TrEMBL record:
InterPro entries for the chain: ATP-grasp, BC-like_N, Biotin_BS, Biotin_carboxylase_complex, Biotin_carboxylation_dom, Biotin_COase_C, Biotin_lipoyl, CPAse_ATP-bd
Domain called ATP-grasp: residue spans: 120-307
Taxonomic lineage: Bacteria, Bacillati, Actinomycetota, Actinomycetes, Micromonosporales
Any Pfam family hit: Biotin_carb_N
Ranges where the Lipoyl-binding domain occurs: 595-671
SMART domains: Biotin_carb_C
Protein name per Swiss-Prot or TrEMBL: Biotin carboxylase N-terminal domain-containing protein
Biotin carboxylation domain location: 1-444
Source species: Dactylosporangium darangshiense
Keywords: ATP-binding, Biotin, Ligase, Nucleotide-binding
Highest taxon in the source lineage: Bacteria
Named cofactor requirement(s): biotin
Length: 673
């Protein structure tokens, strides 16, 4: 029996495993890097061991330190979670050699499935259908192809290539990314199937010979080849197809004498054919949807199997209802999925009453690695949380999930929340028309929820009125309306930097704090500080009539043309986060008379986000062409390229490989030809 378990991981998955351990009476041990010292997973563990440093290679990827931590705390078992060393056969072997229980499949099975090339060769003999594969770029004769890393997963080391001219650079880039992420730069090319679906089968196997499929999941909606929406059952899989998928997944598991939780992933073509992609020898990120519809705790089953116990079923259990999961990332979908860093000032998802465990009844479940006050840095994956909805039908699950996300209050970092809501409400999604190219075909999902002109204006007005209410608290004569004058003059003005640019808000309050006049306009940033008299409400007849029903520093209620609207306003360090039924917006208040700032030289290339400079491919004086790759910035386990925007000469280079840079830092100067 496992008495004390160390989770060789961090964040959300560590908290997930701890939750089951608490329910089973198993003591828990956390490990943490410098950056994770205040992480929720550390506070929730019975014991915690510090791993000095921040880089994964110095902390969570150091198997020797993890085993030493287990010994130091008296742990007798290790759960790897997902990512990091979860599919590293050498680490699994070292854990077992140290006399600890390994919560996972055998090192031999991990090694066999850890190399996608070896797995394809082995499982082809077992009768599992495969796609044509090329080991070297010059062997490719048909396009498009998908360049894939042989080791690891999560979309890293993957590139779609549609012509021979792009193949060499794609292979080189994938090799670098795979070597950095997994320590193995081996890649191969596989035929790319257009309009395919990503279907996977969850299997659980014990040491008594039972291999049981626990339903299939559809994970077709992806960005950067990484899943963001997962569901079960798939709307594209009927009973006969499900049976064939189960047979192939079971054959794959039996071919390697698999024991534990695993996932066999397939590509489903529009023709109905399916092909093996890979086998993940660990717990998947999306396992909660399976837990909902099957009614099992998969972490508990992992522990039972690791202790030598048998599964409680010998065949596929029935599925109940429909479950959908979305991954909430700290990133900006409209800006090339650029990761976002900073302090998460508020993180609240109303209605999510359950977390980290199977739902007792249809509803919402939130599995998060963060909480209000968490700092989102550059060292690890940008996933903040997973929100799961379980309902009797797919349509109900999508509606419940979209509504909860739309009402969520997530302040401090940019997230993909709005995109997820638009996907869940899109008719193409609701009708089940999903595949791996879904986001490319539906650019409308990249629009913010708060997109109508009136909604943006009213949110800006609410932020300004909340600011006036906060200032009135400390006024010398608090009984007077904010900005009161005996003779009405120009409107009171506030200038914000918002998602669509610089916005000026003007308002005038009457004697009883009623809204006598208001107007909102977009302005050129150079106009900030000019008199607000130009903001004439009479010149803006398209503004809807509005009246203040109540206004405090945190909540504004307006009557807008006979409709009552509530706005929650959360102000932090000059930034107002405004949430309403229409959506959310962050507004940074600009000074009325801004101080001059030093201008960057013409042709400046700026760091798109904080991180470490990876490769530097140019030197001062070098002539480059538009589109040339100049350097890369590595952050959140991804490589972000910096290309030349135009032809020119590198007149100044401010960084070298390994340099740490902040967002907005000057990297180089490109003087146009």
């Amino acid at each position: 029996m496992i008495r004390r378990l160390l989770v060789a991981n961090r964040g959300e998955i560590a908290r997930r495993v701890f939750a089951t351990c608490r329910a089973m009476g198993v003591e828990t041990v956390a490990v943490y890097s410098d950056a994770d010292a205040d992480s929720p997973h550390v506070a929730e563990a019975d014991y915690a061991v510090h791993l000095p440093g921040n880089a994964p290679t110095a902390t969570y990827l150091r198997g020797d330190l993890l085993i030493a931590a287990a010994r130091k705390c008296g742990a007798d078992a290790v759960h790897p979670g997902y990512g990091f060393l979860s599919e590293n056969a050498d680490f699994a072997r070292a854990v077992i050699d140290a006399g600890l229980t390994w919560v996972g499949p055998s090192p031999k099975a991990i090694a066999m499935m850890g190399s996608k090339l070896e797995a394809k060769a082995l499982l082809a003999e077992a009768g599992v259908p495969m796609l044509p594969t090329a080991l070297e770029p010059d062997e490719v004769d048909t396009f498009p192809v998908l360049v894939k890393a042989s080791a690891g997963g999560g979309g890293r080391g993957m590139r779609i290539v549609r012509d021979r001219e792009s193949l060499a650079e794609a292979v080189a880039s994938a090799r670098r990314e795979a070597a950095s992420a997994f320590g193995d730069g081996t890649v191969f090319c596989e035929r790319y199937v257009e309009r395919a679906r990503h279907i996977e089968v969850q299997i659980m196997a014990d040491s008594h010979g039972n291999v049981v499929p626990l339903g299939e999941r559809e994970c077709s909606i992806q960005r950067r080849h990484q899943k963001i929406v997962e569901e079960t059952p798939s709307p594209a899989v009927d009973a006969p197809l499900r049976e064939r998928l189960f047979q192939a997944a079971t054959a794959a598991a039996r071919a390697v004498s698999y024991v534990g939780a695993g996932t066999v992933e397939f590509l489903l073509a529009p023709t109905g054919e399916f092909f093996f992609l890979e086998m993940n020898t660990r717990l998947q990120v999306e396992h909660p949807v399976t837990e909902c519809v099957v009614g099992v705790d998969m972490v508990r089953l992992q522990l039972v199997v690791a202790e030598g116990g048998a599964l409680p079923f010998d065949g596929p259990p029935p599925l109940h209802g429909h479950a959908i999961e979305v991954r909430l990332y700290a990133e900006d979908p409209a800006n090339a999925w650029m990761p976002s860093t900073g302090t998460l000032h508020r993180f609240d998802v109303p209605g999510a009453a359950h977390a980290f465990a199977p739902l007792p009844a249809p509803g919402l479940r939130l599995d998060s690695g963060v909480a209000g006050g968490s700092v989102i840095g550059v060292h690890y994956d940008p996933m903040l949380a997973k929100l799961i909805a379980w309902a009797p039908t797919r349509a109900e699950a999508a509606r419940m999930l979209g509504g909860a996300l739309a009402r969520a209050r997530i302040h401090g970092v940019t997230t993909n929340r709005d995109l997820l809501v638009r996907v869940l409400r899109l008719s193409a999604f609701l009708s089940g028309e999903t595949d791996t190219g879904f986001l490319d075909r539906h650019p409308e999902v990249f629009a913010p929820l708060l997109s109508s002109v009136d909604a943006v204006r009213l949110s800006c007005l609410a932020a300004a009125l909340a600011g006036a209410a906060r200032r009135a608290r400390t006024a010398l004569l608090p009984g007077l309306p904010s900005g009161w004058r005996n003779v009405p003059s120009a409107l009171q003005t506030v200038v914000y930097e918002g998602p669509t640019g610089t916005i000026e808000v003007g308002y005038r309050l009457g004697r009883t704090n009623d809204l006598a006049a208001w107007a909102v306009r977009s302005i050129d940033p150079e106009d900030v500080g000019l008199p607000g008299a130009a903001l004439d409400p009479a010149g803006a007849p398209d503004h809807p009539p509005a009246a203040i029903l109540s206004a405090t520093g945190e909540r504004v209620v307006l009557d807008v043309d006979g409709v009552r609207l509530q706005f929650a306003v959360h102000e932090v360090d000059g930034v107002s986060f405004v949430d309403s039924p229409e959506g959310s917006v962050a507004l940074t208040e600009l000074p009325r008379f801004p101080l001059p700032v030093a201008e960057q030289p013409e042709g400046s290339l700026i760091a798109p986000l904080p991180g470490a400079v990876g490769r530097v491919l140019v030197v001062p004086g070098q002539r480059v062409a538009a589109g040339d790759l100049l350097l890369t910035v590595e952050a959140m386990k991804l490589e972000h390229p910096v290309h030349a925007p135009t032809d020119g000469v590198i007149s100044d280079l401010r960084v070298a490989a390994g340099s740490q840079v902040e967002s907005g830092a000057l990297l180089a100067v490109l003087s146009p030809s």
